[in-house]
Amino acid sequence: MSIRQIISCKKDFLDLLLLADEQESMIDRYLERGEMFALYDKNILKTTCVVTDEGDGISELKSLATYPQYQRQGYGKRLVLFLFEHYRGRQHTMFVGTGDSPQTVPFYEDCGFTYSHRVKNFFTDNYDHPIFDEGRQLVDMVYFRKELTGNKLVTKPDTK
Q1: Which stretch of DSSP H or E encloses residue 29?
Q2: Domain coordinates of the chain in residue numbers?
Q3: pTM, rounded to two decimals
Q4: Does domain 2-147 have CATH number 3.40.50.970?
Q5: pLDDT, tens digit, for every residue of 7-59?
Q6: What are the start-end ranges of the E strands in the chain?
Q7: Which DSSP string corresponds to 115-154?
């Protein structure tokens, strides 16, 4: 398994990014200013994400997505744990925003994020069409946070 930083041609990964953020114009707001990472297993792309620097020691995880056939196999969590180590010492806090979804909220909590705050009507105010997850319309953005200070994590993915 390897995790690679993607420096150029980030739009080549658009099909995967759109699984996490289904409106390309929203992805365009952060793709080029963010650092992009891709997780490969046996040289097969499984998961990608973008991390933006929000200033004052704060980063934000955006568009974490795993191809459906590889979901629930630990790839997303492995990438998130790598990011915690990668940004530790460079940033003090990582945020992630998501819809109030019965799949994504427990995933981020399992990765060590805790509830931070909610942005009312984010999806209805910022997307040009209704966004649904498991048949339920997403309205608010729910933010979670992870402090990146302190002891190193026990699990650190191989990045070779």
Answers
A1: none
A2: 2-147
A3: 0.88
A4: no
A5: 999 999 999 999 999 899 999 999 999 999 999 999 999 999 999 999 999 99
A6: 2-6, 35-41, 44-55, 58-66, 93-99, 114-119, 131-133, 136-138, 141-147
A7: EEEEETTHHHHH-SS-EEETTEEE-SEEEEEEE--SSPPS
